[in-house]
Structure formats: C-alpha cells, structure tokens
C-alpha cells in the first residue's frame, strides 16, 4: 500500500517562496511518474507539474519559470519549489504517484498553500 504525505505548505506573502515535499512509503518511487496537482475552492483539480522516472518534466503554463519539480529516488521524495508566488496560486496541493501501465494511482491527503498579504 503506497502512502504519500505532503509537507511544507502554509501562508506566504505575494512574491514569496515555499517548498513542498512529498514523502512516499510502502513502495519505491524509482519508476513512477510523480506529479503535483492543485485545487482551488470551487475549481477542478489541475496538474501543476510532473516528473517522469527518467527526469523529464512538464509544467502548467501558469507556473512555468516560477515552479520547479524535482525528485530524489534514494529518499523516496518529490519536491515542488515555488517562487514568485501569486494569490492565484492559493490552493490545496496534492502529490500523485502513478506507475507506468498501472490502472490506478495514489494521492496524498493534500496541503494548503495560501498566498496573501
């Protein structure tokens, strides 16, 4: 049973930075596609960033140049460095793990990020 636990969220002023971390347990993430999604109140859950087992990255247009996703397979973690934060980045952020070819995926419980002055 894979478990994902997010950490690092909180309240930050516009222009500030936060680093989210997702720790996986129960299985190695080495070949998994790891992603961060976010969901603002009243909106759908959207992809923020994704990194493949080979290190290829994908970003939503709204975060390109500001957010960086990285993974450390030895520690079974994936991080999201968020810089130049904007109020519209306010959302609950979720970590996701999916193994290639698998029918199901795994989600963390989510962590709140609030960007406000």
> Rg from C-alpha positions?
13 Å
Structural category is mainly beta
> How widely separated are the two ends?
40 Å
Low-confidence stretches: none
| Number of strand elements | 11
Shape category: globular
Structural features, described:
The protein is mainly beta and 117 residues long. The protein is built from no helices and eleven strands. Strands 2, 4, 5, 6, 9, 10 and 11 form a seven-stranded mixed beta sheet that branches. The chain has a four-stranded antiparallel beta sheet with strand order 1-3-8-7, with no helix packed on it.
Strand and helix map with partners:
Elements: E1 3-7, E2 10-12, E3 18-25, E4 33-39, E5 46-51, E6 57-59, E7 67-72, E8 77-82, E9 91-98, E10 106-107, E11 111-115
Parallel strand pairs: 2-11
Antiparallel strand pairs: 1-3, 3-8, 4-5, 4-9, 5-6, 7-8, 9-10, 9-11
Summarize this structure briefly.
The chain is 0% helix and 50% strand. By secondary structure, the protein is mainly beta.
Q: Key terms for this structure?
A:
117 residues
